[in-house]
Design brief:
Elements (H helix, E strand, L loop, with lengths): L2 E5 L14 H7 L6 E4 L9 H13 L5 E3 L6 H7 L2 E4 L4 H10 L3 H9 L4 E4 L1 H4 L28 E4 L15 H8 L7 E4 L3 E6 L2 E6 L3 E4 L6 E3 L11
Parallel strand pairs: 1-5, 2-3, 2-4, 4-5, 6-7
Antiparallel strand pairs: 1-8, 7-10, 8-9, 10-11
């Protein structure tokens, strides 16, 4: 039975790191004593240890214990012994490439499918979909495949933003990029705005947070869903 919180972002404007998610994190990991942090996405290129220490300090405020996947030389063993997982944000290509190189995809999937709670933010949310083909990140490395954890039956576009009326920006909007994606791919894409997250439990995937989300389905007009919408309805 999966228990996941998949957030668009770790930090919303005017708050500290993960602060807006504190109640959700505390509830998700209420029975967890050894939460594994996976820092491979390296936001701003920071070292794994520095990123892990930020998370440790933050989780201490919630009386939660975190250890890093680099705390020993055996990442798979660390996954097997944890009772909670947090995959942090940064660059989705780097994150997926690292997880592939260390042969961690199957161990993570097995752990989450067995009921170990998982928190993802930004890139850590993106890799829980079918592929990372709808990330906003630059391909600074080249994973062997764009296929990711497939823990939810959609793709996600974290940090989704709408085209601002009157903007002088001449590049493609997120909506246009996702339409381009659908010329070659069939999966549904969730445009997840800041302050919103998906709560996956049992057979439900519920939109939570302060914003609507935008749904993109190949050959259909994009539409909005409200908080508390069950995304499993999109599959039928």
């Amino acid at each position: 039975m999966k228990k996941m919180i998949l957030a668009s972002t770790s930090t919303i404007y005017g708050s500290e790191y993960l602060e807006y998610l504190f109640p959700v994190i505390k509830n998700l990991f209420s029975n967890s004593k050894n939460i594994l942090f996976i820092p491979y996405a390296r936001p701003n290129g920071i070292p794994h240890k520095s990123y892990t220490n930020i998370v440790k300090d933050t989780f201490e405020q919630l009386n939660l214990s975190v250890f890093g996947i680099d705390d020993s030389n055996n990442p798979i063993e660390n996954i097997n012994r944890c009772d909670g997982i947090f995959i942090g944000g940064g660059n989705s290509f780097l994150l997926l490439d690292s997880i592939q190189r260390y042969n961690l995809i199957k161990p993570i999937i097995k752990k989450v499918n067995s009921g170990t709670p998982l928190l993802g933010t930004s890139a850590g949310t993106n890799i829980c979909g079918i592929s990372i083909g709808t990330t906003n990140d630059m391909p600074i490395v080249h994973p062997s495949s764009l296929k990711s954890l497939n823990l939810i039956p959609f793709n996600i576009n974290p940090h989704y933003i709408d085209l601002i009326k009157g903007s002088k920006h001449m590049g493609e909007s997120r909506e246009i990029r996702i339409k381009e994606f659908h010329k070659f791919n069939d999966q549904i894409v969730i445009g997840l705005r800041e302050g919103s997250y998906l709560q996956a439990q049992e057979n439900n995937i519920i939109l939570k947070g302060s914003n609507t989300a935008r749904i993109f389905k190949k050959d259909y007009t994009p539409h909005e869903i409200e908080p508390e919408f069950n995304l499993n309805k999109l599959l039928y």
